[in-house]
Amino acid sequence: MASVSSKVRKAVDDxxxxxxxxxxxxxxxKDDIANIAATLAKIGKNSAKDATRGAASSYEAAKAxxxxxxxxxxxxARELEDQLAETVRERPLTTLAVAAGVGFLLAMIARR
Length: 112
Prior knowledge:
The chain is mainly α. The chain has three helices and no strands. The longest helix is centred in the middle third of the chain and has 71 residues, at 20-90. The protein is rod-shaped, with a radius of gyration of 39 Å.
């Protein structure tokens, strides 16, 4: 039993053998389909390139923002460290008492 597609091909072949104008139209259709496929392939390739460029630029922007944020945090940590060092220099006994109190509280918590 012949498949449907082979029957269609045979019917097209029979019709085109007897009609040269139909053969030219089928050849033109094949060329048009090939051109459409090539155009779609180019569009797909260009879309992929655009998506890659967009992703790369988004990555670079996110990386730059992350580096800026990291530097801001580092700067704030340095300022806090400087403030803490200044406080220790100005009030060494108060700092020692606070450190002892915090240590005592942590020891109490760790016991439980």
